[in-house]
Amino acid sequence: MGVSEQNVEFPSGEGTAHGYLELPGPDGAGTGPGLVVIQEWWGLTSHIADLTRRFAAEGFVALAPDLYGGATTHDGAEAMRLMQELPVDRAARDLAGAVDHLLGRPEVTSSTVGVVGFCMGGAFVLTLAAQQGERVSAAVPFYGLPDVGATDYSGLRAAVQGHYATRDRISREAVEATAAKIREQSGVQADVRFYEADHAFVNDERPSYDEASAKAAWSAAVAFLKEHVR
């Protein structure tokens, strides 16, 4: 394990959370803006670790919290069980702890963090941004299920760029309703983008992977994060 690959512990409420951290730079010991990377419902898999490394290669100090405490799966039914059994309040504490940890690290040069998440993590992105206010300056959900009814976005201050698939159980209407609620409650106009692809089109370990859509979304997300996380 090199300098850039770190399994880290950080405070989460009165307990401790764990995550996977990557530092930028050719020697994996650089500095840069902070970025929280939130897992899919499969857990902190090799795909999420790879994305975390890729964000570090783009110059971010990237931290992926392990919301399942080490559990991962490739089975849909098991993933559903793990997600349903994840206490929302504990996940919120772990994610808030990740923000604290990044902002307290000497390698982090930004006064805010960005948050990016995929699938289940895409939904957590917006909730975390709403809870953390000015500490999160950019929120980038990828095909996360919008929660139109429960989340209060009045505290959200982050710029928002969302990436969604046209062929998905998450309807365009639900995504647009969430964007409208964000605008009404926070004044933030979300940049919502749709791709002619299936759910999880960025995950190159799944049959749903769509190279053209993944590359376009990745380039847009990285540019957006670099613009807003300072």
TrEMBL record:
<feature type="domain" description="Dienelactone hydrolase">
    <location>
        <begin position="25"/>
        <end position="228"/>
    </location>
</feature>
<dbReference type="InterPro" id="IPR029058">
    <property type="entry name" value="AB_hydrolase_fold"/>
</dbReference>
<protein>
    <submittedName>
        <fullName>Dienelactone hydrolase family protein</fullName>
    </submittedName>
</protein>
<keyword id="KW-0378">Hydrolase</keyword>
<dbReference type="InterPro" id="IPR002925">
    <property type="entry name" value="Dienelactn_hydro"/>
</dbReference>
<dbReference type="GO" id="GO:0016787">
    <property type="term" value="F:hydrolase activity"/>
</dbReference>
<dbReference type="Pfam" id="PF01738">
    <property type="entry name" value="DLH"/>
</dbReference>
<feature type="region of interest" description="Disordered">
    <location>
        <begin position="1"/>
        <end position="25"/>
    </location>
</feature>
<dbReference type="InterPro" id="IPR051049">
    <property type="entry name" value="Dienelactone_hydrolase-like"/>
</dbReference>
